[in-house]
Amino acid sequence: MNGVDSNNIFALIVAAMATADAINQDTRQSLDNRAAAGRLRDGLRSWKGLAFEYRDWTPAASRVPATTGGAAA
After folding, report:
1. Taking the domains of the chain in order of start, what are their residue ranges?
2. More confident residue, 9 or 21
3. To bridge 1 with a disulfide, which of 14, 15, 39, 66 should be the other Cys (CB 3.0-4.6 Å)?
4. What angle do CA 18, 36, 16 make, to 5 degrees?
5. Angle between helices 31-53 and 9-25 (to 10 degrees)
6. What span, in angstroms and rounded, lies between the C-alpha atoms of 26 and 31?
7. What mean pLDDT value characterizes the chain?
8. Which branch of life, at top level (predicted)?
9. Backbone angles phi, psi at 9, to 5 degrees
10. Do 32 and 38 touch, CB atoms closer than 8 A?
């Protein structure tokens, strides 16, 4: 999921679905791994619609004051 904005839940779900789908279709993987990837893909699909509503959402700025690394006065 390199290059995916970690704040964009929709993009993360879509990327995870694509990865799970690729594993599910890879005949080099064991049947158990392929089945688990298919279940994961299907589970993520159920959240995709909800996540689409929040595709432009970004987390609020942290309220913790930034430190400069200097000694306290």
Report:
1. 9-53
2. 21
3. 15
4. 25
5. 160
6. 10
7. 83
8. Bacteria
9. -60, -35
10. no
